[in-house]
Amino acid sequence: MKKICIVTGGRSDYDLLRVVMVELNECPDIELQIIATGMHLSPEFGLTYQKIKEDGFTVDREIEVLISSDSPVGVAKSMGLGLISFSEAFNQLNPDMILVLGDRFEIFSAVSAALVARIPVAHLHGGELTEGAYDEALRHSITKMSHLHFVATDEYRKRVIQLGEDPNKVFVVGGLGVDAIRQFDLLDKESLEKSLNFKFGLRNLLITFHPATLSQTDARHQMQEILAGLESLTSVNFIFTMPNSDNGSRALIREIKNFVASRSNASLYTSLGQHRYLSCLQHVDGVVGNSSSGLTEVPSFKKGTINIGNRQRGRIQANSVINCEPTEQGVSASLEKLFSTEFQKSLVDVINPYGDGGAGKKIVDVIRNYPFENLCNKVFFDLSVNSSPWEVVDDK
Question: Helices marked H in the chain — which ranges?
């Protein structure tokens, strides 16, 4: 039995990891371990670890890392607390491999603890760029501390190899968000309205905006500009979801709550959950904000995305994405384009660059069959002495 320990820090990574967790749970030769941390355990962010249990999984450890501060000092202290707590949990659980996704600071702490404990790490969705957030540096650092890499596109695979990783340990599997879309029977509009206690209007937008942690502009000011751009719309209803726990998130939440409180056509949800979130994508007219979902999942619904600011800059995009600055004028102009007849007609031909599904099964097939012995003994793959590093291994 291989003991595979998944670390999940919030709704955003769990919604993607769930596909892999289901596959692993069905393997007779795999013992699945789960650690819930970060926003999962925060009442402010919806105590979403309960959803993991509702889905039939056992949470082996709950590791509290968030403190009551979203300042740089508060986030750094959370990272330190995580490093201490994950080292203790790994010592107790004794996993054969840690499996993580993405670039969050709590995931960085978990992988750092695994590194010194000589536990191999499988990293999902590495090689991607998000130039407007320190998540980018965390993601690449996690790549260097990991041993098996599962990436969404050929371009991301090249970038992981460029960081010195062995091409034979970098697998192109596609985006996990596409898998999730295929797994659900999405709610019809009437059922979704009842579940949300929300009435869809003639036009509807789903809005998620997170702090861009490397931006020189205050996150609260950016949110004010975005809300000013939305305010001019008529006959449009708004579904807001909460930002994550990065620096400055609480100021964003206050701005959104004030906006929603004064309008009957707007609602705010701490956590929609994956089923309702994807169902919303099916029925709204577009997505606004800076969430990665707008680039990786929304194109599969043939819907437009207004991607605000530089948080996702560098990530591969479909033609359905409209990029704009976080200003009232930029948002207003982008909304005009989003609702234009010409742009709406163009969405019919949109292709999601993150594939058409099957990532979860590919990941689990590799983990089941790959030998773990000596995985921690890595050799830097030097491009200066390897002339043909881009040949794709058989990852089917």
Answer: 11-25, 49-54, 72-93, 105-116, 135-144, 154-162, 176-183, 189-196, 219-231, 249-261, 274-283, 293-296, 328-338, 341-346, 359-369
Helices 189-196 and 274-283, axial angle in degrees (round to 10): 130
**Using the 8-state DSSP alphabet, how is residue 59 labeled?**
-
Quick check: 130 and 104 in contact, CB under 8 A?
no
**d(Cα 151, Cα 154) in Å, to the nearest integer?**
8
Helix, strand or coil for residue 66? coil
* Domains and their CATH numbers in the chain: 2-174+358-369 (3.40.50.2000), 186-349 (3.40.50.2000)
- Mean pLDDT in runs of 10 for the chain (396 residues)? 95 91 95 95 86 95 86 90 96 98 94 98 94 85 98 95 96 92 90 96 95 74 94 92 79 92 92 91 96 94 96 92 96 97 96 92 96 93 79 52
Cα distance between residue 153 and residue 127, in whole Å: 9
